[in-house]
Fold this protein.
Amino acid sequence: QVQLMEYGGGLVQPGGSLRLSCAASGTSFGIRAVGWYRQFLGKERELVARISTGGNTDYANSVRGRFTISRDNARNTVHLLMDSLKPEDTAVYYCNVFLGDYAARPFGSWGQGTQVTVSS
């Protein structure tokens, strides 16, 4: 099975930045599309960023221009750089992988996520 682990979250002030990281066991990020999700309290997970095996990226409108997803295939790690953070970005952030570049649903098991709290 594919298991994911997220880390790098924390408490930041509005306008600040955080860099989240995702590591996987059971798959190589180099052959998978990878996505970052977030889950607001009491809500379902939603996809906020995705990167294909070829490096193409896509973002939810709510984060486009502020978040950047990237991959380091040599280290089998995917990152989410979050700039200009807003209180409404507060959520638990998860990563997951897709079986194919155009798959609509994630393939891996959900990790525990990492908490991001944006507050003064």
